[in-house]
Amino acid sequence: MKTIKTFGKTFGLAALLSATAFAGAEAHVSFLDKQATQDSTILATLQVPHGCDGKSTTEVRVKLPEGFVFAKPQPKPGWELEVIRGDYQKSYDNHGDKVKTGAVEIRWKNGNLSDDFYDTFVIQGKVSGVEAGTSLAFPVTQMCGDAVEAWDQVAKDGGDPHGLKSPAPLLKIVAGEGHGHDHDDMAGMDMTDKTGMDMAGMTAAASAGETINTGDLEISGGFAKAMLPGQPVGGGFFTVKNNGKTDDRLVSVSSPASGEVQIHEMVTKDNVMRMRQLKEGLAIAAGQTVKLEPGNLHLMFQKVKTPFKQGDTVPVTLTFEKAGKVDLVLQVLSAQGK
């Protein structure tokens, strides 16, 4: 009876929150915030309010429009992630570098979002070279097993989208004061601020260079990245070298800073980036060095209790098959560090 009562309370609260959120949402896939300022980096948050005729949503595909560049999706627990890369129609400036390729489609796959609930899917990206008053369309394909909903209709000549049956989510671009503050590429910071951040990053990196030995393993270079506003998961990285003659394996990771820590692999092939959890652990072959780094192997901190901030530390416990447990402290660098 206790279990049933607890579930009932939990379900009742979830239903209330869902109903409250849904009351302010639209029946189709849409953005939580429907406006963005010119030349700013944003968290574009898509709301998926229901399934397909009662069926659970298992995949969400989002095509990115020209002018929304340098996109990075937010991983979701229980979902696989794919990033399709391609050519932009023109080049975009990224800290002095001319970039002509990047993410053009994001796919969250093999999930299970019941029709009874709604959820959000977040993409960080920069609005660049788009005139104020323009609306960027993000066509979405919502898949529910063998059922498909395409949210891809766009009104002609900027007309009213409310008459469309399956409108694509729109992001209206507005002018901002000095184009607004760009927290990702630090466009709004002066040179003193940039220098200060660089120095802070260098100090953290230096203190993170401590090497720890356990058995035949040598662990070094541990760090984490600061989490951006609204980001629910964090990333951790380090290097492990096996100086012995016997293979070992990192079987699990835990941390008091989060409810769960998973070992993930990110692989790019044929311009498609896929991320998956290594449920069997990470092999550390004899005589080999394995590096966990952004865009490759990494730790994913889920259910983070307090967002990681630059200058903080994150304690973790690594458990190896043969070398046993070892405690490691990760220094938190800036979100753009390493």
TrEMBL record:
Keywords: Signal. Residues 1-23 form the signal peptide. InterPro entries: LpqE-like, Lxx211020-like, PCuAC_sf, UCP037139, YcnI-copper_dom, YcnI-like_sf. CDD domains: YcnI_like (cd08545). Residues 28-173 form the YncI copper-binding domain. The keyword Chaperone does not apply. Gene3D superfamilies: PCu(A)C copper chaperone, Uncharacterised protein YcnI-like PF07987, DUF1775. This is DUF1775 domain-containing protein. It comes from Rhizobium lentis.
